[in-house]
Amino acid sequence: ELSLSYGVYPRLTEPGSSKSDIMHKTVAKLKKKGILDDNDLVAYLGGSFGIGGGTTYLEIITVDGLINKIDRYVD
N or C end of the chain, less CB within 10 A? Predict the structure, then answer.
């Protein structure tokens, strides 16, 4: 429903060895396919998924800002 209302296109990510690994691989794959550029806005969810868990945050940020943030703070 969000894609119809707001131009949101969800993508499921593959498992990785760490949060930064998952983010880097996902962004690189989408940039290679021409889906993302550095100035595009992306939204990502985080939290403890699985039994008893769920989404605890949502962030909307530029691709370039996300990569810089990952390199500084994640893991």
Answer: N
Query: What mean pLDDT do residues 11-22 have?
Result: 80
Strand, coil or helix: 45? strand
Residue 8 near residue 31 (C-beta atoms within 8 A) = no
Helix/strand/coil for 35? coil
- Residue 4, pLDDT score: 58
CA angle 30/74/45 to nearest 5° reads 55
Residue 12: which pLDDT band, with cuts at 50, 70 and 90?
confident
The span from the CA of 18 to the CA of 23, in Å, is 9
Can you read off the two tokens belonging to residue 69?
């943030």
